[in-house]
Amino acid sequence: MRCPFCGCQDDRVVDSRGVRDGAVIRRRRVCEKCDRRFTTYESIEESTPIIVKKDGRRQSYERQKFLRGIFTACQKRPVSRAVIESGVDAIEATLFEGLSPEVASTELGEAASEFLRRTDPVAYVRFASVYRSFTDVGQFAREVQEFRGDTPVTPPPIGEG
User: What are the backbone angles phi and psi of residue 42, rounded to the nearest 5°?
Assistant: First the structure.
C-alpha cells in the first residue's frame, strides 16, 4: 500500500478489525519511511447490478445516485443519515440478493417509496411526486389522502349545493 503522505510503498499493519458487520476490514498502517499512520479499508468487490429503466435502457446501479435521491426527499426533515443509509442497505439486500443480475427501476423506486412511507410522510410525498411524475396539485392531494387513509372528497358540481 502506498503511503498517502510520502508515497513510500513499505508499510506494516498495526491493527485490523471488521466493520459493517464483517463486510469490510479496517486496517491501521504505519509507513516504514515517514512513520506516519493511515487507515485503509478492504472489501470484496461485488458485481454491480444492472438497472432496467422504464424505456428499456440498461445502466449500472449507482448507490450514490440512489442515496442522493433519498437524501433530497429527506432534506430539512428529521431523518438522520444513519437511518437513510441503513434503509438503502436493506433495500439493496432485498433487491440485489436474488439470482437475477438485473433489477427493474420500478422495483427500486417502489422500494424507496415504501421505505420513505414508513420513515417520514413528507419525504415520501416529495419522493413520490418526482418518481411518479406528478403534473398537478390534484395528484399531490390524492397521494396525501391515500397516505392518510382519507376518502377522497368530490366537490359538488357548479350550481348545486
Answer: -120, 130
